[in-house]
Design a protein that fits this description.
Layout: H1 19-28, H2 31-36, E1 39-44, E2 47-53, H3 67-83, E3 90-101, E4 109-119, E5 123-134, E6 137-152
Antiparallel strand pairs: 1-2, 2-4, 3-6, 4-5, 5-6
Length: 159
C-alpha cells in the first residue's frame, strides 16, 4: 500500500513575491482582531501564526479563553495561511471550518498555527492547531480543519 503525504507548506510557492507585506497589511485592517488584542506572528509560505494574549475580555465565566476566541484566531490563522499562496489581486473568504477543543485554553496566551494542506485554484484546505502557553508549558488545546475560497480579481480592502 502506497501512501502520499499531504503537500507541506514548505513545498507551496506563493504567487505573490510580496505576500508577507500583503498578509500583514490585511490582518492590520481587521477590527475584530484588534478588538481582541490578537497579533500576527510568523508569516511564511503556506503557514501563519496568530497570537492572542490573555485578557479578561476574551474569557468565559471560569476564566479560560472563550471558545469563540479560540475559533476566531484559528479561522484567522488558517485564512491567512491560505492567503499567503493566493495571487496579489485577490482576497480570501472562509467557506467552512470545524474545530475540536481538546483542552481548556488557559495561560498567558494562545497561539494558532495555520498550515496549508492543499492549495487549489479556488479552494484551499488548511489545518490549524491552537496551543495555550502557561508557565513555560505549551498545551495543544484545539485542532481545526478549514476550507478557504480565493476571490481572484477582488481587492482585499474596503476601498
Amino acid at each position: 500500500m502506497t501512501t502520499h503525504a499531504p503537500a507541506s507548506a514548505s513545498a507551496a510557492l506563493p504567487q505573490d513575491p510580496d505576500f508577507e507585506r500583503r498578509v500583514r497589511a490585511s490582518f492590520a485592517r481587521q477590527p475584530f482582531m484588534t478588538l481582541m488584542g490578537a497579533r500576527m506572528g510568523v508569516v511564511a509560505p503556506g503557514r501563519v501564526e496568530v497570537e492572542l494574549p490573555y485578557v479578561e475580555s476574551v474569557t468565559q465565566q471560569v476564566g479560560y479563553f472563550h471558545g469563540g476566541a479560540v475559533g476566531a484566531i484559528a479561522d484567522t490563522a488558517g485564512g491567512y495561511a491560505a492567503y499567503t499562496l493566493f495571487p496579489a489581486d485577490s482576497t480570501v473568504l472562509t467557506v467552512e471550518y470545524k474545530i475540536n477543543i481538546m483542552a481548556p485554553g488557559r495561560g498567558e496566551r494562545l497561539v494558532a498555527v495555520g498550515e496549508v494542506v492543499r492549495s487549489g485554484r479556488t479552494l484551499t484546505i488548511v489545518k490549524v492547531d491552537v496551543f495555550a502557553d502557561a508557565d513555560g508549558t505549551r498545551t495543544h488545546c484545539a485542532t481545526a480543519t478549514q476550507t478557504l475560497f480565493c476571490l481572484a480579481g477582488r481587492s482585499d480592502s474596503r476601498a
